[in-house]
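Question thread 4412

I'm putting together a teaching handout and wanted feedback from people who do this every day. The idea is simple: show students a protein as raw sequence, then show them the structure tokens that encode its fold, then repeat with a second protein so they can compare. Below is the first pair exactly as I plan to print it.
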Amino acid sequence: MKLKTKLSLGLSFLFTVILVFGVLGIFYINRLTNDAAKVLKNNHESLVFCNNMLKALENIPHSEKAKNDFNENLKKQEANITEPGELEATKEVRTNFAELLAAPNDSSNYPQIRMGLQIINDLNQDAILKKNNLVQKTAEDAKLWLAIIFTILLLITLTFIINFPAILSNPITKLTEGIVEIAGKNYNKRIYLKQKDEFGELANAFNSMAEKLDEYESSNLAQLRFEKSRIETIINQMKDGIIGFDGKRKILFLNAVAEKLLGVKEAEVMGKYSADIAVHNDLMRTLLQDEAKKELKIYADSKESYFNKDVLNVMNNSEVVGQVIVLKNITPFHELNEAKTNFIATVSHELKTPISSIKMSAQLLNDNRVGNLNEDQHELIKSISDDSERLLKITSELLNMSQVETGNIQLKLQPVQPSAIIQQAIEAVQFKAQQKQVILKVNADSNLPTVNADQEKTAWVLINFLTNAIKYSPESGTVEINALRKNNLVEFTVKDFGKGIEDKYLPKIFDRYFKVPGSSKTGTGLGLAISKEFIEAQGGSIGVQSEIGTGSSFSFLLNVAG
């Protein structure tokens, strides 16, 4: 039966209950009304007629009108015969009234007429009493039947009210429970309804949907398992350490390399918070630090290895839902770089001595005490000296860079007067400045405090700044050397008025082997990089400001001693 039909039947039943109860009520009300009307019409009117005739009877001897009234009421009574014996009594009254009219002076007819009227009156009063009892009985019967029918209908209605909503609500409840289970990915849920209505059709459709979802989930799960297994195999075969976290930093997976590096098994830490693991694991604690060095030296497998740390965020609609830390093994590159650095240091060291010897020999040859040289020979000696000077500078920079790359910068930190550093740097570049007619202008406070620095390496940095400033200054230009105090720091600045550096090159100016396009090709691109390492090794900072057409300003800050 369709749900629509059930609702129609339910509403029809309620309508039928109301209709039946109403019809019964109207039936009994009409019956009582008819009985009451009969009493009023039949018996009550006869009583009125008899009463009128008795009144008129008293006045018949004296009034013609009384005779007419009596006759009119008698006619009405003759037309309203309703009770047994009433007809005979009425005829008797008619006969006696006729005799009275024929013999007005005969008084014997009066008692006969009164007796006849009394009989009619008694008959109608008895009838009224009987009919009243009948009406009362009818009313009692009506009340009884209405009460019985009302009780029956009430019980039926209550049963309907209790049971009919369940016909609608129970299937809805089962369907709701099924939908909740499906939403919870329980695709084995089924709904069984014996009804053949819309709910039954909906349950069948629900079961069909759940079956399809179960099939899809099974096939999809198998595919996901295959993909998971394949990805796990790939990750475990990688030589890099890989650690996966969810959005709450719970560990999701480790590959074999990460297990060895951390010294733990994947099964031991799976699903645990990384912060809890970091309490007892130094490497994990280091990896969780956002500002941790990207290059890490890790001791594993009885040897030291070097790794680069890369953090990859797993995104879902611009929301970070997890992280993957990749520890890339750079040990071979580190070893090659170390070998390169050692090679450069060795070669530079070995070259420095013969180059110095060549330079000294060239100076001796240029001395007149050794012998006079012609002009061409002087030019050759000058060329040899310049090349030797350039080679010495290159070898010095390479030696310094080897110290930087190996982390073996030897510092002799001690209180140093800023003026001493400036004076040492000016003496070293004075000759070059004179050759180009560049004026070196010093602006330094006389009462500057001492700085905590390595004088030789700091002077080397300042010399490098001055050398570049002189190189890029115009003929007869000016280079300013400034020194001033800033709280607990002293700032050294070298400013030239050359062509300047474009903004796009400024972030790279202190990178190794970087040279501004269009600059001199004779440099190595290491001077500023070494300067940066020397200053930062002393706890200071270095910077540059430049504008095309107005020149450049290189500066560094050192801590005040004490």
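The second pair follows. I'd like the answer to focus on this one:
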Amino acid sequence: MIETLQISNYALIEKLEVEFDPGFNIITGETGAGKSIILGALGLIMGERADLRTVRDPGRKTVVEAVFSLGGRSDINAMLEEADVDTDPERCILRRELTAKGGSRAFINDTPVNLTVLRDVALRLTDIHSQHQNMLLGNPDYQLSLVDAMADNGGLLEEYTKAYRLYRKALEKYRSTRDMVTRSRNEAEYLGYQLEQLDALNIQAGEQHELERMRDLLANAGQIKEDTAAVLDNLQGSTDICAALQRASERLERMSDIFDSAPELSARLAAAKVEIQDIVETLADFDNSVKANPGELDNIEDRLGRLYSLEAKHHVDSDTELARLRDTLRSQLEAITNSDETLGRLEEEARKAKRQAVMVARTLSERRVAAAEKLAASIVAKATPMGMPNLRCAIELTPGKLTATGMDSVQMMVAFNKNQPPMPVGKTASGGESSRVMLAVKAIVAEKMQLGTLIFDEVDTGVSGDIANRMGLMMAQLARNAQVITITHLPQVAARGSRHLKVYKHDDETSTMTEVSLLDREARERELALMLSGDADSQTALETARALLDERQ
């Protein structure tokens, strides 16, 4: 349940802290006083989209913080642990911060979280029912969710969702492969032609570099031989460097008795002689290998030309990429050749996944059929005391094709009057009737889902008199097992609360602000008298107000 709600810099609220009772909390106030503002702040905690226009002072953050008592809710702490959020076995603090520039941050127990985590946790803690939600009664998806809640289908729905996703994934893989194979078969002839060209060239990855080197060598053979001969002449010509080094080395050896470094220098000269001899031999071998060969040069130029042409055609930069393309084309053609076998395997996998999904869906359907009957009976049982003695309700399930929620479509049929044929609830219910049916539904959902807090925003719209009193009694009964917070204009409902909060506007010299005050017994009497007659000082209204409050006792 919500222990406290703190709001700052939000719409007409400068700073506000509200404490709630564990039981039945009433919020009243004149139209425009700011009751919807408080509900909007609670919506931020629920992860709803922020309206930046609600930031009161653009120079400061808007902060909404709610402290929830967990009351042994281990499921909440399990969710928090999974999201890597610090936990407290007793309390959970949800906070939302907004800036006028569009910044939005969410926190749980002072740990930053994304809105999805905030929303998931908040939805486990509280349920907000606003006036427009009465329209949900006519929504088949909402009706199906009610049936599933009555059937305790949470775990089975998770199982079905997994099975359905596997089926859709397998089906999509089969369809995409089938489409690819169809396209590939149409392109097979062209792919084969491309592969023939590549195979005919017998590409060897890395050969292009060697061919380019040989081309450059042959194309410049004359100049290369001239340069090589010149180098050899410098090393072996009139001044034979190797012979000179040999003579110098011998002279140094004779000087060893008088020059300490002579042996070392002699050895170094000998080594230089060996190195130069090796250079000469290498150059000589290279010179012998270089021969002008126009025929070979033509062959190399032709080979390179064919490589360059295919690279340009296929938009690649090297023979290595051409080789890779060749292997890819071969794999594609092999896949086309073996496509029937592949498609057969993928089709069987999709059928197997579908059979599994259908099996779980049928179990869901069986449980839904039984739960639908119970739900309809429960709605009648809870709504009848609220002035609906002739209410009849039936929830019809129709099997169909597989969808994300199973194989069932649902339609809630109701009749509010004698001799009236049942009709879809969205087409036959008035505003007051929808409110009462929805209140009955919320009572059932609260029992099944163990919600800690239920918030009603004028769920009693369209009713009055004894019906209003009965709806107030229903909400008071709900408050025995869950915290209930109700925004209402009806004194019959307001008198049932264990705590009464009044929302009002306060004007100073510069601004208008929304405030909330906790009403004591006397103040409650005056507020109820005002709601009854429009005059808080009316003695008749005050007496009626006292009677309503005494009846609650």
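Top answer:
Good format. For the second protein you could add a caption like this: Residues 1-128+493-518 form a domain with the Rossmann fold fold (CATH 3.40.50.300). Residues 154-201 form the longest helix (48 residues).
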